[in-house]
Target: Dicarboxylate/amino acid:cation symporter
Amino acid sequence: MKKIALHWQILIGIVGGILVGFLCIQFAVGKEFVIDWIKPFGTIFINLLKLIAIPLIIVSLIKGVSDLKDTTQLSGLGLRTLGLYLLTTIIAVTLGLGLVNLVQPGGFLSNETREEMLRSFGGVVDEKVEEVTAIEEMRGPLQPLVDIVPENIFESASANSNMLQIIFFSIIVGIAMILLPFNQVEAFKRIMDSGNAIVLKIVDIIMFFSPYGVFALMAALVAEAPSLDVFKALGVYSLTVVAGLLIIVYGVYSLFIYFFSHMSPVQFFKGIFPAQLLGFSTSSSAATLPVTMECTEKNLKVRKDVLSFVLPIGATVNMDGTCLYQAVAAIFIAQVMGYDLSTAEQLSVIVTATLASIGAAAVPGAGLLMLVIVLESIGVSPAGIALIFAVDRPLDMLRTSVNITGDAMVAVLMNKYGKE
Ligand code: ASP
Model:
């Protein structure tokens, strides 16, 4: 029998999970059954992906950087990559701002729904707001920079939220290796090469289970989802975010690929599809990273030294989907709560949403948390997050897919700057 391609298997897992989730919630004990007996397999799957993320970043980044010819090549690649990340993020946030002002989704929300959302989700949101505000109050303007430099690498490696610190350390090791004579680093390089092969094999093994993993994740998502009425009430807001995300992926990224790479947009989307599906199912760019790297290497033929530098950094700092969503969400909340934002305040959303998306961790719900900062910068009460809380998960799934597609797009464009 011909083997079905992995992305179709994942898609079948997604659809199957949704159907089984719906079926189960028709029965009184269905929700409990899904949570007790199906959801744990989804959690195991995400844990496996997260488990491999840090070893993968360390070996592939050290190997990738040390494979570059010299530090000039690294700084050239680094500056171009970061520049492109910033450019796409600013395009995304500006698009989000344009759309939300055009559609004015705030005008579509009835007073009743508004009251209900604030009542139902007020408590949870208050806790989150307190958490973020307490952290923010203690931080100076340069703190994000300080946070990148770890004081103890083992401590950094103990939490996936410290990915930027791991990246920083791995790049330094790679640079030292470029600067040293080859015979002094040869042995270590070989260890990194084998480490890389081993980690990639583990990714293959994990991916073998991915259809079952996403099946469990989707079934649990449906079982735990709020009622469909919530989606109807927040329909125009959600559609505005979705429209923006679609324009970014199929409009903006297609144009970049078409004009600045040697690949057709169709080829690009076909190659990155499995990673998009996984980003959608896991809502985490970090958990999807191993697969984004695999698709970019095998399907999009991006050089290893380039992608192992571009993608881990992209997963943590480049979040076009998140940033677009934050612009729409912030203005939507302001509209509903009756704030009249000046042009200067709207423009400050561009700056804060860009920074907030860079600072957001590559995990589920991080974008929502960072929205607190965007709202505070324009003087809107962060308690308004309660309004959009109910539909955040599906939008998180979509924006994560967009985030990783943006990273892959930049990797494709940077391909020509690798070692010839
Ligand atoms: N879940 C997103 C990601 O991992 C971040 C967000 O919440 O927007 O890319």
In short: The pocket of aspartic acid is lined by residues 283-285, 319, 322, 360, 362-367, 396, 399-400, 403 (CB under 6 Å).
